[in-house]
């Protein structure tokens, strides 16, 4: 566990999973968000709640699917551009990863960077974060690892003494696509404003493409994405005293070409009433809970969006098939 800040080591080891889960539920406003989402005329649930322990494991399985091209394509792109990115980052960079999950891709950057000093993985899923951070700290003893368990959308504090010009924010996986464009602009502007003049951003963005390729990526033959989507209901049952019968809901993923986004829904297969946290919610047969948007961009479209947020795009790279893009940006302050 070399290089992992001591207070974080203590957090990983001493508490049980159930306590951690209860705390996360409480801190995140899960119950309030579920009540609000299921009471709305068009039901929805925030996609950030996908990532409990089960959901994080299912997401890792999605990333390994044949149909889910983003992970392997972005990884190959990072590998082929790592030296170029390292040169842009400079010596002794502080890498901040948003939504770090299993901290796999960042290793390509840490391997290529010139004496990286600091790695700050930020993730909402505390248990998963602490395990991954400890593993990474063991593999990179020269890098100080400071895990931050936080919803990075709400903001997070950087450790004191990290100069903005040394900091590189790594936001891979096209998670920016899970924000609506207006929210993405607000989020990116807030990030630059908070971190300050000279901070760099390396962001992975999925590109627009054939509808069939996109829909297969979000509705795989083995049903892993379906299980990932349905796990949201299972999580509500586990943590909020929910009575969802998972057999009475089905996963649906469709590409909305007009809006340039994949939409994931859970479709009620019957007229039914479900209880959550002591409250009853009615579902009609065919009614859906909208659980996720995954926006797809063109290279130019994303650069324009980032410019509206105040970022200066310096480089953009795509893979040979034009499936995925990486952008290097600077916050001019
Ligand atoms: C995390 N995020 C970028 C994934 C995506 O592709 O939008 C989440 C996901 N949902 C279903 N499959 C993957």
TrEMBL record:
Residues 1-13 have a biased composition (Basic and acidic residues). GO terms for molecular function: methyltransferase activity. Keywords: Methyltransferase, Transferase. This is L-histidine N(Alpha)-methyltransferase. Residues 1-22 are annotated as: Disordered. GO terms for biological process: methylation. InterPro entries: EgtD, EgtD_Methyltrsf_superfamily, MeTrfase_dom, MeTrfase_EgtD-like, SAM-dependent_MTases_sf. SUPFAM superfamilies: S-adenosyl-L-methionine-dependent methyltransferases. Pfam families: Methyltransf_33 (PF10017). It comes from Azospirillum thermophilum. Residues 31-329 form the Histidine-specific methyltransferase SAM-dependent domain. It comes from the Bacteria. The gene is egtD.
């Amino acid at each position: 566990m070399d290089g992992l800040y001591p207070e974080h080591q203590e957090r990983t080891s001493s508490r049980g999973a159930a306590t951690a889960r209860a705390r996360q539920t409480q801190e995140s406003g899960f119950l309030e968000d579920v009540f609000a989402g299921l009471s709305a005329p068009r039901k929805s649930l925030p996609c950030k709640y996908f990532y409990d322990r089960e959901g994080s494991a299912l997401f890792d399985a999605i990333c390994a699917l044949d149909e889910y091209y983003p992970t392997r394509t972005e990884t190959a792109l990072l590998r082929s551009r790592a030296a170029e990115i390292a040169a842009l980052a400079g010596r002794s960079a502080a890498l901040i990863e948003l939504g770090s999950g299993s901290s796999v891709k960042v290793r390509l950057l840490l391997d290529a960077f010139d004496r990286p000093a600091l790695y700050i993985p930020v993730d909402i899923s505390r248990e998963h974060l602490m395990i991954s951070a400890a593993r990474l700290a063991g593999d990179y003893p020269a890098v100080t690892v400071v895990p931050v368990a936080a919803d990075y959308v709400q903001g997070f504090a950087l450790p004191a003494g990290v100069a903005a010009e040394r900091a590189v924010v790594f936001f891979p996986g096209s998670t920016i696509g899970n924000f609506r464009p207006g929210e993405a602009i607000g989020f990116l502007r807030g990030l630059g404003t908070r971190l300050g003049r000279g901070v760099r951003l390396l962001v992975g963005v999925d590109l627009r493409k054939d509808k069939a390729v996109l829909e297969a990526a979000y509705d795989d033959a083995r049903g892993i994405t379906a299980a990932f989507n349905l796990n949201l209901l299972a999580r509500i049952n586990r943590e909020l005293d929910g009575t969802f019968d998972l057999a009475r809901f089905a996963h649906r993923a469709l590409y909305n070409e007009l809006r340039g986004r994949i939409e994931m829904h859970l479709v009620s297969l019957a007229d039914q009433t479900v209880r959550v946290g002591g409250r009853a919610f009615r579902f009609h047969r065919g009614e859906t809970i909208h659980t996720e948007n995954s926006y797809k961009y063109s290279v130019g479209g994303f650069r324009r969006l980032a410019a509206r947020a105040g970022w200066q795009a310096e480089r953009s790279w795509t893979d040979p098939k034009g499936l995925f893009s990486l952008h290097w940006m600077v916050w001019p302050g």
